[in-house]
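Section 5.1 Outputs to date
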Amino acid sequence: MELEKVLQHHFGYTSFRPGQKEVIEQIVKGKDVIALLPTGMGKSLCYQLPGYIFNKPVLIISPLLSLMQDQVDQIKQLKEKRVVALNSFLNATQKKVTIQHLHQYRFIFISPEMLLQPQVQQKLNSMELSLIVVDEAHCISQWGFDFRPDYLRIGEVMDKANRPPILALSATATQKVLGDIESYLKMNEPFTFIHTVDRPNIHMGRVLFQNREEKLDWILEHVLETAGPGIIYTQSRSKTESISERLLQMGISTAAYHGGKDTLDRQFIQQQFIDGSLEWIVATNAFGMGVHKQNVRQIIHESIPSNVANYMQEIGRAGRDGKDALAILLFADGDDEFAKFVGIDDFPNEVHVDLYLEYRRRNESPSTMIQNGEISETAYRVLDYWMHQIHPNEVKHQLLTMKTDKIRAVEEVVNLIRTKSCMREKLVHYFGQNLMEKPSDCCECCGLDYHNIIQKRESFEQDETAVSWKKRLETILLGFS
């Protein structure tokens, strides 16, 4: 079979991007595959093309509703009607009908939580799938251990003698995460394709501050004089709102995006950003996964990411068109301690383990802990998963290890920020790779001139009657002092 002919027939392309053909060839042979391809390298083609070759349903397990819907819309734009998302957007009747007719679809998108529902498993067991895809597979390690343990149960559903090949897709993964993916998906000697994580067109800056309050002034000034589109990441929902509000006061088309917003509102904001109605998004890390916007020019981290992998994922949302983009980390003394606190604050501990056992001893459901305000729902999900996996004493050790790992992960980000050597080289080494070549304006340590990477905001340059941006900024800051 000539894969290029199938590619041209269904997608109109005459050649593959690096890694696509290698991955598809192994899938066609029936092999399990782990593929690490950078953002914008066409990961979705790796399962869409086999869907036409095998002509049987492809099951795609996807982490976010917005990501799922975006992928469905993209496939529909290719004139493929046999695609569906089985998720909480469907009401009870729609869900029932969709499950009944699931075998009629070519591409089936589903969340890990929905996958584990008995009626869904029963239907899938009666079907002959051609391929099972786990998209954004790093979430198995990153989210499964933290707040969505159903990720760790995906492999239990797939652990069947006659299952189809599994394709695990991600943009980045360390050796540990690769091991987690292979283990928890119960993959059988997978073929692994790892593309370099380096994105030469993303130039890495950093700005150090004495205190956190200085960051806001810097952001307002920087955004006012430089062109987007861009994303500002922060750890706090309230900060996304306050920074967004300040930018709106300055006439910058901006919106705040975080998990506390209604699902439809988040989708609307995301679509506005994609179609260019919004120049900037101020977001928690809930934003960006699977967002297909080619021309993001800037990523600014107001708060440091919780780990290096998150940082790599988040800056990877810039420059998907191959043109230069800028990623700037802002860091002030105390940011690392705050990041550590956020990372382990909403997390079960030894007291919760003892409490869980006490509820069991009284023949009460341990989930009552949530209603009684003794634990958050997120922390309970993590606790409940491990209490069903290992001995309670081992659970205590596991939770302590996970907390220690979270603290260490923050320290690794700080090491990247404080390094005096090449930031790009250090970042690539973190993922077990070597940097082959440095671009000009590589990073803050190698020499970086922002003006070589990003343009000035044209709207302010062209507005001759407007007050200078410095005067506008001073006026706005004075109003909030």
